Amino acid sequence: MVEAEKILLTKQGVEKLQEEFRNLIDVVRPNVIKDLQEARAQGDLSENADYDAARARQAEVEARIKEIEHILANVTIIDDNKKDKKGKAQRKVSVGSTVTYLDLDDKEEHTVTIVGSVETDPFNGKISNESALGVALYGKEVSDKEIEVQSEVPYKIVIKNIQ
């Protein structure tokens, strides 16, 4: 038997998906069903654009519901407030870490949070643990010198802080 993939999410990410799921089940799905019923009542379905649109929306909603069910069934919640055994902040970068680093090319500091691929939102500083930067940072410490990020154009960074 094949073991199911584990999907990494923060507790906040799980809560957000659960909210979306409840909204799809309790609000969106009933509205789509209502739209379908209204479109059917118009008569001839073969040339009914409203019916076609409602069916397409229903397919989208059902697909997203199944996707969320799959994610939640295979989720591994990551601890985004990691502490070592003595209660100190973590020393190595892992999924859930917030990292401030200096880009040695542009001399600018950046702060990112390493998350699982489902939660990735680079515009809000959440990068995937599978991205080039995520892979380069994973397991590193503040004491590590120049870390090379293997992207299309490789670049070097220095970790300033790990939370």
Overview of this protein structure:
This protein is of the alpha/beta class. It has helices at residues 11-40, 49-73, 132-137; strands at 7-10, 75-78, 98-103, 108-115, 126-128, 147-149, 155-162. The model has no long low-confidence stretch (mean pLDDT 89). It has 2 domains: 7-78, Orthogonal Bundle (Helix Hairpins), CATH 1.10.287; 98-162, Chitinase A, domain 3, CATH 3.10.50.30. It is 37% helix and 22% strand. A 5-stranded mixed β-sheet has the order 5-4-3-7-6. A two-stranded parallel ribbon has the order 1-2. The radius of gyration is 22 Å and the shape is elongated. The protein has 3 helices and 7 strands. The relative contact order is 0.15. The longest helix has 30 residues, at 11-40.
Blueprint (SSEs and pairs):
Layout: E1 7-10, H1 11-40, H2 49-73, E2 75-78, E3 98-103, E4 108-115, E5 126-128, H3 132-137, E6 147-149, E7 155-162
Parallel strand pairs: 1-2, 4-5
Antiparallel strand pairs: 3-4, 3-7, 6-7
In quaternary terms, these chains amount to single chain
Q: Categorize the overall geometry.
A: elongated
- What's the pLDDT, averaged over the residues? 89
Tell me roughly what share of residues is in helical segments.
Answer: 25-40%
Content of β-strand: 15-25%
Please identify the structural class as seen in this structure. alpha/beta
| Low-confidence regions | none
Number of domains: 2
**CATH homologous superfamily of the largest domain - what is it?**
Transcription elongation factor, GreA/GreB, N-terminal domain
Topology, number of strands: 7
Architecture of the largest domain in CATH?
Orthogonal Bundle
What's the CATH topology label of the largest domain? Helix Hairpins
User: What is the ordering of alpha helices and beta strands?
Assistant: EHHEEEEHEE
Specify Rg, calculated over alpha carbons. Answer: 22 Å
Widest beta sheet: strand line-up: 5-4-3-7-6
Helix run count: 3
The major β-sheet equals: 5 strands, mixed
Taking the alpha carbons of the first and last residues, their distance comes to 38 Å
